[in-house]
Amino acid sequence: MNLPISRRLFCAGALLPAATLWLPGCGGNDDPPATAAPARWAGIAMRAVALAPAPGLPPHFSARIYAMAFLAAHDALNAIVSVYTSYLRIDSAFGADPDAAVAAAVHDVLLHELPFAAALLDAEYAAALAAIPASDAASAGTTAGQRAAAAMLANRAADGLADVEGPFTEGVAPGEYRFTPPFDFTAEVFWGERMKTFAIASAAAYRVAAPYRTTDDAYTADYNEVKALGAAVGSSRTADQSELGRFWLESTNDSWMRIALQVAQARGMSGWAVMRALALIQVAQADAYTACIESKYFYHFWRPITAIHLGESDGNPATVGDPSWASFDPVCPPIPDYPSGHSASAGAGAAALARVFGTDAVSFTHQSVTLPGVTRSFTSFSQAGAEIGLSRICVGYHFRLAVNAGLAQGRAVAEQVMATQLSAR
Asked: How many domains, in total, are found in the chain?
């Protein structure tokens, strides 16, 4: 093998500490060093996000933060050994300790974005560094992680987050969005228009087709379905549908992350590959949310709860209104119906994981934080994604059209992300 000079010197051990004596191509081993830091820091990231003051971070906020943190850690690892293409360019950290690099990268991004979690993050960071023997490699790893985090924070410093809120005027015509009780506002009106995407050209490029009119037969069918399945009282839900509705109220960002870690562990995936997988599924979901919100405010279609309350004045004689109707989950997010953001995230996560693991047909189980003690089993990522979509009908949040459009939109975004980002070298 004709190695570059730097690799030949490295294989000979020239001028490098013993702790760093590893390199692809040396001794016939082309794998990067072992590290469990990606999985550990994914868990820390979820705990940090969960500390957000009530009512917690909206999922598009947490997806953005996860994407930033895991991309930074991915870049730090690939500065040590270039297994995949990097997202942002940082200086080479050849021979640095990967555990220190991941810890520094994730810690610094999360600390900047989640100041309320500082105590947790600082304690975990100190513990991580204390577990790494002092060496030049450890110092170099810390520096690499810090540089990757700084590059990511600079890249996202003016990404539009400060300008996503704005006024919104309720509609007056059938199908136009009305505020959902108990809210008298809509959230993140300009997120889809102003938020900088991570991997897709623009949110508008993934805008879904226009929704139906309230007089269409398809609308009638969807109206009657969610009115029956999603009602708090007198619903037609089965016990299983009630279970899955509550089960998938949790953030899909966390759901897909925990599923990815479970499958990666079962397959013995390397730390480099785990970090790449975490970054990709969060980038796919973050961009899917941004595309989804752009479509939501472009069409500003009403939610089932207000549609059913106003069913007698929607111009459709086949829809029977009910001013007292309430959804199974009582607090509908204050943002337009179409398409479903939860479903867009579900479609994006499922498609990204199918590409990461080379097949959609992967069996796994999952436990939800919003319905503790319940385990649900799946034979594919897409099966789980479809169930996540169905859950939004079962809790009364969305029409089926919004669910189907969101799933398709998320898949489209994920395919673009997977085709263009963090490819193997």
From this structure: 2
Q: What is the mean pLDDT of residues 299-319?
A: 98
Residue 8 lies in a domain: no
Beta bridge partners of 84: 424
The set of residues, in sequence order, having a beta carbon less than 8 Å from that of 29 and lying 6+ positions away, is 22
**Phi, psi dihedral angles at 129 (to 5 degrees):** -70, -35
Q: Could you tell me if 15 and 9 are in contact, meaning their C-beta atoms sit under 8 angstroms apart?
A: yes
Q: Tell me the pLDDT tens digit for each residue of 211-257.
A: 999 999 999 999 999 999 999 999 999 999 999 999 999 999 999 99
Which pTM does this prediction carry? 0.92
At 422, is the secondary structure helix, strand, or coil? coil
Residues 391, 140: Cα–Cα separation, whole Å:
47
User: For residue 23, what pLDDT is reported?
Assistant: 36
- Phi/psi at 424 (5° precision): -70, 145
Question: What tokens does 406 get?
Answer: 């969101």
Q: Contact at 8 Å (CB) between 110 and 117?
A: yes
Per-residue tokens: 405: 């459009």
CA angle 334, 335, 340 (to 5 degrees): 125
Instruction: Please list, in sequence order, all residues whose beta carbon lies within 8 angstroms of the beta carbon of residue 14, skipping any fewer than 6 positions away.
Output: none
Are 248 and 289 contained in the same domain? Answer: yes
Secondary structure of residue 24 in the 3-state scheme: coil
The radius of gyration of the chain from alpha carbons, rounded to an integer in Å, stands at 23
Q: Would 1 be classed as within a structural domain?
A: no
- Residues 343 and 217 sit within 8 Å (Cβ to Cβ): no
A 10 A CB-CB count for 318 gives: 13
Closest C-alpha among 62, 9, 43, 58 to residue 121: 43
Q: Which residue reads 């279609």 in tokens?
A: 301
Q: Are residues 109 and 225 in the same domain?
A: no
- For the chain, how long is the longest CA-to-CA vector? 83
Report d(CA 139, CA 302) in Å as an integer.
54
Residues 121 and 206 in one domain: no
pLDDT for residue 30: 53
Peptide bond into 33 cis (omega under 30): no
Q: Which amino acid is at 124?
A: E
Does 95 score more than 80 pLDDT? Answer: yes
CATH code (residue 236): 1.10.606.20
- Give every CB contact of residue 157 below 8 A, 6+ residues apart in sequence: none
